[in-house]
Amino acid sequence: MIYKGMEYAMPVTPLLKELTYTVRLTDQLIINDKEDKMLIEFTCRIKADDEPQQYLLFLDNLKINGNAEGDYEKHEWLFARLFSINSNLIIKTDQYGSITGVGDKKRILSAWELAKEDISAVYEKDEITGLFDSMDYTLKNNMKLLYHNDPLLNLLFNNIYQTYTGEESIETEKIILKHFGATGLPVIEYKELVAIDENSNIATIDVTGHISESFTDMEGMNNYLAEVTGQESDEEMDYYFDYQGRYELSLGVQHHIDKAELTISGYCPGYKKLTVYHLKLQP
Fold first, then answer.
1. pLDDT tens across 46-63, in order?
2. Ordered alpha helix ranges (H), 206-274
3. 125: Cβ–Cβ under 8 A, 6 or more apart, which residues?
4. Which class for 129: exposed (0-12), middle (13-18), buried (19 or more C-beta within 10 A)?
5. N or C: which end of the chain has fewer CB within 10 A?
């Protein structure tokens, strides 16, 4: 057993075969004792492309609050239709496993136009104008920001294949989108190799993170929290933030993630947000 504090070089350029994960996402928001909760489950299939360090990602078998296609409530159907835009993606990485590119943009934009037609047939114009304007702008102007900072994609493709020592953690700068409405939240993630079981070739990596306060839009954060909780807009909110997770990886010729989880939470008076990502390799 190799324990935390010993130097270990995690094999770089992971040789992914075709892998399928079960993904579960729980999202909970409580504002002034009013709770909104959603459970999302789907499968994620990753296949190595012909190009080096490029992968094909397929998302399907979506369930929302236990409901599958054909049984969705109206708001669940809307989420599912938006989800379908990303049913297949191309992910490019560097040798350490971090995302360097997501494509292809033309296919994503085409899928969005088809989704808009379907949504327009179900919702009144005044119900969806804001959604359409936001999605149009983001996909046409900030697609890189959106996909490079997606928590699920970052959980699957992270810079974990590096040399770990007992002296310092592996740092990754990230932005959590929509944690405070339209205000992005800059976070610094730290990864530490906790242990390697040489008998089972399983490596365990712990993940923690904290807000990068020097780059945080504090005014935007405080205004959002004050607005949703009904407090004074110029009041500084005492916000507690927590970010932690864990990876278990199989090592060897076909080294890959066996399972991973990430919990992002925060609260202040009148406000609580909890998001949990969990993925597990299917047998």
1. 998 888 889 999 999 999
2. 218-229
3. none
4. exposed
5. C
